[in-house]
Amino acid sequence: MHLRSGPILEFDYPDQFPPTLMMFGDLIDPEFSFLRQVARPGWRVVDVGAAIGQFSLFAATCLPGASVDAFEPSSANVETLNRNLVRNRVEGRVRVHRAALSNRKETARFATAPKTWMSQLVAPDSGDAGTEEVAVDTLDATLDQLELDHVDVLKINVAGFEPAVMEGAMRSLRAGRVDILVLLLGLPSLPHYAAIAALGYRFFYYHPAKRMLFEVGQFDADSVLGHRPWPARHILAIRDAAVAGLIAGRVELFSPRGEVVMGGELTGPPPNGAMD
Predict the structure, then answer these.
(1) DSSP characters for 149-209?
(2) b/e string for 5-14 if b means 16 or more Cβ within 10 A?
């Protein structure tokens, strides 16, 4: 399948067939357009829950000079991911780690579901024949081991286990080690969004047609989900100190106060229909 973002995505049918991607295309990932707009050469990208490689391939092929560390515990997904990297000739820019990230270090069992993107960690003593052993660690410890002092983009999409991954990344976020987070939306994650915001991050949705970030100022379900540009499935968090430098002259920002910020400067009331 040739994605509109550029890469060619190979998958095993039917187990790895991505129905939402086929139905909505890159509309489900408006952050791709945002990252294209603000990318600088040589970004370091971490992809947690890489699956068969949609995000890793985008970063390696569409962000200039980007290097990627991709984490995926499913052996079946890793095999397809590696094929996709070779097919797109970016295997030299992506390091693949068959591992899971969470809020603790352990050895766990990973169950590969018939729809492999829904696979998940299970109890270590699970006797299910469909499970495989996988190493689990925190993102904080993993970044230390990889000597990644700074990450430009961190994407987390792990089929509902995002809260545990965020908990295992709090030390790095507190230190301002990550500039941009791309997080799969989920109601259990709302308290974690608030905790990350308290560490100096601001949350946004991006509307590609308007080239505008819309800031999310509250973290209740209505505030977060009510402003989602359907069918988008991720929310962005950007380190406050990095916002102005990232967006300057590239995208606009709509703040909760009803003001439009261009290049980091308040310019006045929002344009008509800005939130449509």
Answers:
(1) --EEEEEE--TT-HHHHHHTTHHHHHTT-EEEEEEE--GGGHHHHHHHHHTTEEEEEEETT
(2) bebebbbeee
Please report how many Cα atoms fall inside a 13 Å half-sphere around the Cα of residue 97, on the Cβ side: 19
Which CATH superfamily includes the segment(s) 19-102+140-247?
A: Vaccinia Virus protein VP39 (3.40.50.150)
Q: Which two tokens stand for residue 214?
A: 């819309």
Order of strands across the sheet with 100-102? 100-102, 131-138, 106-111, 120-122
Q: What is the pTM of this model?
A: 0.85
Give the number of other CB atoms < 10 A from CB of residue 114.
9
- Whether residue 75 contacts residue 101, with contact meaning beta carbons closer than 8 Å, is answered with no
Question: For residue 33, which phi and psi values (nearest 5 degrees)?
Answer: -65, -40
Domain boundaries, the chain: 19-102+140-247
- What the block records as the tokens of 61 is 């092929």
Q: Which residues make beta-bridge pairs with 213?
A: 206, 253
The pLDDT tens digits for 56-67 are 999 999 999 999
What is the DSSP pairing of strand 131-138 with strand 106-111?
A: antiparallel
